[in-house]
TrEMBL record:
Belongs to the CbiD family. HAMAP family: CbiD. The keyword Transferase applies. This is Cobalt-precorrin-5B C(1)-methyltransferase. One of its GO terms (molecular function) is methyltransferase activity. Pathway: Cofactor biosynthesis; adenosylcobalamin biosynthesis; cob(II)yrinate a,c-diamide from sirohydrochlorin (anaerobic route): step 6/10. NCBIfam families: cbiD, PRK00075.1-1.
Amino acid sequence: MKEVPTGKKLREGYTTGSCATAATKAALTALITGVAQTDATIYLPIKRFATFHIESCEVTDQMATASVIKDAGDDPDATHGALIIAAVSWINEPGIILDGGVGVGRVTKEGLPVPVGEAAINPVPRKMIGETAEAVLKEYGIDKRIKIIISVPDGEEMAKKTLNGRLGIIGGISILGTRGIVVPFSTAAYKASIVQAISVARASHCEHIVITTGGRSEKYAMKQFPELPEEAFVEMGDFVGFTLKQCKRQGIKKVSMVGMMGKFSKVAQGIMMVHSKSAPIDFNFLATVASESGADDSLVEEIKNANTASQVGDMMVAHGYLPFFEQLCDYCCHFALQEVGGGLVVDTSLYTLKGEFLGKAVRQDGID
């Protein structure tokens, strides 16, 4: 993953959908004119034009190919630097046929915006590519029909750094984008992936979802709930409240929250966006919970002066105050239900960084 510069305004990039559209325009223009293209200008969904450098362009009588290297700007995007290739050829069949080639995933599970069996080219990029191709054909007065194949040579390897496998997208990356641009650290993009993951789980008939703050806690969760299918596990990152609301909105009956002391000590206070910059650890709160759990005054004072939430957890384990973790989990469940207005069964489990189970609590349906 590339490094992200600090101390300056972050630079926008372009989506895989925009890159595929630009490559398609260049390839089709080359096919019609016989002239290799060096750039392509397209109209983005956010209602502005963008010009793309064409990395390579080759043309014969029946087919042309063009490629664009994806620039994700300053966003730490797994597909930054991807070579996206469009191959356009004449066909006798009616309409414009669009499909994915090497490195573009194929959908194998219900719940995604693309039907099972089709290439993972999302609706907006499909529309962009189709409308751009139609405009080029019209500009040159061409009545012939075409086939467009989008490929990403390194797409299968890049997909390992994405959620595609979990979502049932096999063999490569997805061609994505609703706005045409990539906004660095876009919360909208992450939230969209959460919504999609829950949709796939529901389409797989999951009524019990396990939400975790990251890959490590998800690994612990999978060991805790071996009976659940892979689709039932959703990485929510810092977006606890958003994920809980989406679970309720999509008809999930039970939500299990699995995480570690740092972020879940914030959830236990009712904080539903747990990024370290937006919500620092409140050691006075943890000291209060410790006191409620039977800790003596000297230990309570130590907790107030602790450096990390994990250190607090270690203190409680060392002194044998395990009810502390159950109390913390119970607070998490209470505020989770309060966030969504009840209507769910919520349980919370806490683990150490090394994967040692600390405690669990469950709350049924309503809120106190």
